[in-house]
Specification:
The chain is α/β, with parallel strands linked by helices and about 230 residues long. It is built from ten helices and eight strands. It binds 1,3-dihydroxyacetonephosphate.
Length: about 230
């Protein structure tokens, strides 16, 4: 079981130091991946690290970008790509370039996919997921594909306290697994220490990508205990 912690744009360096002290006491038998903001990523911690974004380019004249090679050089093994909070300013081809740069540097992309509320209402969930997965399905080798983790994050469930029914999650993730049968698929969107009792009944979920919960180590520990 994988649990990835997306701190988003939270925690200044002093707050982060206290936070990782708390986090270091967490016990979990699965794989915990911490994705702090870029500045905090440079702090030494004894937890697997992921970035929240990466440049679609190799290093060079790209002001404001952080290249996969630079992340890899400080021991970062993962990066979230295509998070819905970024997708409005990113094209599918840019997201694919980010995935390629990560793979070239021996890192694993955590590719976020998910439908918006209106897309679900129109019955377009699978069409949206299929489109967001198509470059990975069509243009990566099997070997490259095996390093990709997918996170199913329905946009309407992120930070809202709303979650899909178990049947809806099962249907979406099972669909993703028809496209990528050998990949781990996480669920993300308002997962917390209370709804995990229900969520964990969905057998196709290989782990979770949590936002708000990642900032509360005490509640995170309850969540992880219930998962084990
Ligand atoms: P919340 O867990 O706060 O809903 O955020 C989910 C998310 O966006 C993780 O990437």
């Amino acid at each position: 079981m994988i649990v990835a912690l997306n701190n988003k744009s939270n925690l200044n360096i002093e707050e982060y130091k206290k936070y990782v002290e708390e986090l270091s006491k967490i016990y979990f038998r699965g794989k915990l991946i911490l994705c702090p903001n870029y500045l905090n990523l440079t702090e030494k911690v004894d937890i697997l690290l992921g970035a929240q974004n990466v440049s679609p380019y190799t290093e060079g004249a790209h002001t404001g970008e952080i290249a996969a090679s630079q992340l890899s050089a400080i021991g970062v093994k993962y990066s979230i790509v295509g998070h819905s909070e970024r997708r409005s300013i990113e094209s599918e081809s840019e997201i694919f370039d980010k995935i390629k740069r990560l793979l070239e540097n021996g890192m694993s992309p955590i590719l976020c996919v998910g439908e918006k509320q209106n897309e679900r209402e129109k019955g377009a969930t699978k069409a949206v997921l299929g489109k967001q997965l198509s470059s990975v399905v069509n243009y990566l080798t099997e070997n490259e594909r095996s390093n990709v983790i997918v996170a199913y994050e329905p946009v309407w469930a992120i930070g809202t306290g709303l979650i899909p029914t178990n049947e809806e999650i099962n249907e979406a993730i099972s669909f993703i697994k028809t496209k990528l049968p050998n990949n781990k698929v996480l669920y993300g969107g308002s997962a917390n220490e209370e709804n995990i009792d229900t969520l964990k009944e969905v057998e196709v979920i290989d782990g979770y990508l949590v936002g708000g919960l990642s900032l509360k180590p005490d509640k995170l520990q309850i969540f992880l205990d219930k998962l084990s």
